[in-house]
Amino acid sequence: MVELLSPAGEYSSFLGAINAGADAVYLAGNMYGARASAVNFSNEELIKAIRYAHLFNRKVFLTVNTLTKNNELENLKDFLNPLYQSGLDAVIVQDIGVFKYIKETFKDLDIHVSTQAVVTSKYGAEFYKKLGAARVVLARELTLPEVKEITSTGIETECFIHGAMCYSYSGMCLFSSFLGGNSGNRGRCKGPCRQPYVLDNKEAYLLSLADMNTVEIIDRLINAGIYSFKIEGRLKSPSYAAGVTAIYRKYIDFCLENPGKELIISEEDKNILKTLYSRTSTGTGYYDRVSSRKMVTIEKGAYAKVDDVLEKKIIEKYIDTPLKQKINFEFKAVPGVNAVLKVNTFVNGKEYKAETVSEEIIDTAQKAPSSKEDILKQLKKLGNTDFELGNAEITVDNSFVPSSLVNKLRREVVELLEIEIYNSDFTGRSEFTRDSLELLKPEDNSEYTCTESFCIDNRESDNKKSDKRAFVKTIDQFKFVLNNSFYDSAVINKDIINNPESKELIKDSNKPLYLELPPVLRSLNQSEFEDLIEYASGNEKIKGVYANQYDAYELLKEKSFKKEICSNANIYSYNNMSASINLKIFDEITAPLELNLYDIPEINTGFSFMMYGRAPLMHTANCVLKTTGKCRKGSPDKENFVTIKDRLGIDFKVYTQCDDSLCFNTIYNSKPTSLHKYFKRLEDRKVKSYIFSFTDENTSEIEKITNFFTNIFNGINTEPPYDFTAYHMKNGIL
Q1: Beta strands in 508-635 (DSSP E)
Q2: pLDDT of 509 strictly over 80
Q3: Interacting residues of 258 by C-beta distance below 8 A, sequence separation 6+
Q4: Worst-scoring range by mean pLDDT, 15-19, 130-134, 345-349?
Q5: Are the C-beta atoms of residues 573 and 589 closer than 8 Å to each other?
Q6: What domains does the chain contain, in order, with CATH numbers?
Q7: What is the phi-psi region of residue 684: left when phi exceeds 0, alpha when psi lies from -120 to 50, beta otherwise?
Q8: From residue 61, how far is each of 52, 64, 92 by CA, in Å?
């Protein structure tokens, strides 16, 4: 059994997807959905959609997959409760605080972990499974063997099979956020990856991936053990939702009914998929490749124009002609007693019944009695309901039955049947039992003090001095930090460790060192992770590690890692609840880079702040060097940084980490974030560490930066020797 999951940005898209054969539809309400520009659904439409779907044994999943601020978390219970009581099947969640809140508040509601959570390995799946997730939506960057490894663990998996592709690992992209305040983590991405960029004086669409189209390998995806096949496109038209769903329904059914038989896609169906809001180049995504130049559009990727005749045909077939549930009537009207109308139907193998009785006594016909045909004509008038007449058993013995009476009884009994069907499985759902404050309290309250608005971490109640910690990416940076008294500790990565000069530097270091793990853990680089963990465990100079994902955290715990585990800013603590959870998991957590000082959760001594550094805008599986034919993999003298320029001539640094098994690019913001103007306010919060994140700065530049911040920390205000932004700390995001 597999599930075909389709998108809906409005009610007509929902109807089209259901009527075209979707087993489930994912959609959003007016809050908490990661497609803020979609029409989206009112609560009344959501309840209507849930009822319609359940009538035909389909499911509705609600996207609650934005990172959520404290004031928004307070409204979540009231938003979800009427949908929960109406039978909502599942929610799709990114924010770990939202996950915990829903899990504890709506106990019978399944939670699916969003692709925004960047689950890329069996360890991430296992982490969320332990939390109580019913399903994980896997990152789109995984190859088919990697997907198979995760599905073999037994957790229910959902994978994208069609639609637009992000260049960054979803959930790790701050590009749109830092360019204009439109955060992809908040459903407002403006798609800067779709714009041209210049590398080595040549302009191309370096970050624009071709759309995914896997219909020709759908049999292989089924055999990989994927449970749910997800079509992307909540911003797209109703004809797209219906048309794409219909074609995938056709070929999924073929594969299920004919296992082992060759899958052949008709040219007509291929052309339909190409003309339903698809970019001019398409491919099977990452399923058959780790990365590829062929995945990138290079030239401007326009969307194909939808054929008007095809669109009209799809709308007529799947949207203007909704599905109807057959119901059976039994009508009896004999003189001297009340008329009785009974109805029954079978939904999902279960029989539902309803009955109503007229207030009036039926009269004997004085002239022409009512005929069965007269009664049948009125019973057929089911109008805008979700039903149509199946069978009708009619008894009239020389009676006169006004048409108005039959219509009244029909309306009453259908309404009773609807109530019976729609409420039968969900009226017993347990009500929420806890409030947000109670959920904020960790199990071991001795480590925390919780007030009405936040939890204070008491584990560092001795007013320990905040650490000044430098992330370095070159040997020269590392040497400078080790030899400068301003910095208390340094964070190195695998490139530093693998540099022959580092061995003695690490050995002779008089400062605590931390190891930053690669951005993403996958089975393809798991051995590298394990080597780094073993290195960190065995080297007395290494005090701890930094992780970017819960996947990495879970692997560290499996390896019984005993030293500190710190979270980078990609592990989001957007609200009091997520911050409190992360404080229990990690020894140190980094403040989100998108929030201003007032939105950041009030958890004392728990947060580290990036005081200086270029914000990482993207972590990617594709590589701009590989795309342009300039791959440096295996080159002994390769430079790790390259520069791309946007249309305005603004530079973005790209850090390339390319190994035999896997490539990573990290694209950094054009300007460093600098919080020097906020130092006193941060100092008042008793932050745990001030982070200085260096990218390609040379020794001279770092010296100027260090001297400037030495003055700032000593209360001497001077002008910074660099261009900077304090964008999100000042403004935050919507």
Answers
A1: 513-516, 542-547, 564-567, 588-590, 607-620
A2: yes
A3: none
A4: 345-349
A5: yes
A6: 3-165+210-319 (3.20.20.70), 325-423 (no CATH), 436-454+466-702+712-731 (no CATH)
A7: alpha
A8: 13, 9, 7
CA 643, CA 623: separation in Å to the nearest integer? 12
Q: Of 230, 222, 207, which is closest to residue 144 (Cα–Cα)?
A: 222
CA 100 to chain centroid, in Å, comes to: 16
Measured CA distances, 549 to 121, 153, 178, 553, 591 (Å) = 10, 19, 21, 7, 15
Of residues 598 and 439, more confidently modeled: 598
Q: Tell me the C-alpha distance between 222 and 218, whole Å.
A: 6
From residue 697, alpha-carbon distances to 325, 693, 706, 707 in Å are: 67, 10, 12, 14
Cβ neighbors of 406 (< 8 A, separation 6 or more) are 331, 341, 375, 378, 379
The H-or-E segment that residue 407 falls in is helix 403-423
User: Are β-strands 202-209 and 197-199 bridged in parallel, bridged antiparallel, or unpaired?
Assistant: antiparallel
Give the residue among 297, 166, 285 at the shortest CA–CA distance from 627.
297
Q: CB neighbours of 680 closer than 8 A, spacing ≥ 6?
A: none
For 569, counting Cβ atoms within 10 Å of its Cβ (0-12 exposed, 13-18 middle, 19+ buried), the class is buried
pTM here?
Answer: 0.92
Q: What is the DSSP string of 611-677?
A: EEEEEEEEEESS-HHHHTT---TT-TT--SEEEEE-TT--EEEEEEEE-SS-EEEEEEEEEEEE-GG
Q: Provide the residue type at 645 as one letter.
A: K
Q: Check residue 603 and give its pLDDT.
A: 62
612 forms beta bridges with 674
Instruction: Give pLDDT tens digits for 380-391.
Output: 999 889 999 999
What's the burial of 647, exposed, middle or buried (CB within 10 Å: 0-12/13-18/19+)?
exposed
| Enclosing H/E stretch for 267 | helix 267-275
Q: Which residue has the tokens 């407002």?
A: 188
Q: Answer yes or no: are the C-beta atoms of 97 and 91 closer than 8 Å.
A: no
pLDDT in tens, 437-474: 444 444 444 454 444 434 444 554 445 789 999 999 99
Torsion of CA 397, 403, 409, 413, to 10 degrees: 100
